[in-house]
Write a structure and sequence with these properties.
This is Lipoprotein. This protein has helices spanning 2-24, 115-123, 171-180, 202-213; strands at residues 26-32, 36-42, 47-51, 54-62, 66-73, 81-87, 93-99, 103-105, 109-112, 137-140, 146-154, 157-162, 191-196, 220-224, 237-241. By secondary structure, it is an alpha+beta fold. An eight-stranded antiparallel beta barrel has the order 1-2-3-4-5-6-7-9. Strands 10-15-14-13-11-12 form a six-stranded mixed beta sheet. The model is unreliable at 1-16 (pLDDT under 50).
């Protein structure tokens, strides 16, 4: 009887641990000015982290409140690390705190299938990029040279927005400020990235580009995807001048 009870308790504890760990398995992302672009990939028995320092790997285990990392291999002298963690009710947002001499709060991470899926969730837009076989120019990551305009759908409604506003009403002022705050030697190279859904009509795209051309930046690159460049593993844009 005691042996049977022990087996049942052990099985229950193992099952609970497995449930907690299963919720973590997958890709989690964050992006902000302080940390840059960060990706946590929880596999069944290992964790891979990509950040601005590079790549690190570790072995991980979790209980209901903590993640324990061991055998860390990366840009750190630490070989072990513990996080306090909390997953929201949707199972899509992860809150992490590093346990050191004091708790270090990390920005909230979002669960997503790929880099591009995270990009869409971050914007709260669906943008299905147009596919082309034409030769495209490498235009790189969003950076200090690019002002981004996004055109996509939310609940079947067309939304056109920037990184600063939910529409284009203040586009001219935003671009002026962007240009004024750019270094003098960079100003001739400033450009728009137009990241727009393939279903948006030509007339609608032309109207958006017309508003963009009324600003202090004239060069517009529209972002496209190709079969080799589908942005699942990177947001290194390719596009052409329009």
């Amino acid at each position: 009887m005691k042996k049977t009870l022990f087996i049942l308790i052990f099985a229950l504890l193992y099952s609970c641990s497995t449930i907690e760990e299963k919720q973590l398995i997958g890709n989690w992302y964050l992006e902000n000015d302080e940390y840059g672009f960060v990706e946590f990939i929880f596999y069944k028995d290992s964790l891979v982290v990509y950040d601005k320092l590079g790549l690190s790997k570790s072995v991980w285990k979790a209980d209901k409140s903590k993640i324990y990392l061991t055998d860390i291999d990366g840009f750190t002298e630490l070989k072990q690390l513990t996080y306090l963690y909390e997953i929201d009710k949707s199972k899509k947002l992860l809150n992490l705190k590093v346990i050191r001499d004091s708790l270090i709060q990390l920005p909230e991470l979002t669960k997503a299938k790929s880099h591009y899926d995270f990009f869409q969730k971050n914007l709260d837009l669906s943008i299905n990029l147009p596919l082309t076989n034409s030769e495209l120019k490498y235009i790189g990551f969003p950076d200090r040279l690019s002002f981004n305009v996004y055109a996509g759908y939310r609940n079947d409604d067309l939304i056109v927005k920037t990184d600063l506003s939910s529409d284009l009403r203040n586009l001219e002022d935003e671009v002026n400020n962007f240009k004024e705050n750019s270094r003098e030697e960079l100003k001739p190279h400033l450009k728009f990235h137009l990241i727009a859904d393939k279903e948006i009509s030509k007339n609608q795209i032309d109207s958006i580009k017309s508003l963009m051309r009324k600003t202090a930046i004239k060069k517009i690159f529209r972002v496209y995807k190709t079969k080799p460049s589908d942005y699942k593993n990177t947001l290194n844009w390719f596009g052409q001048v329009e």
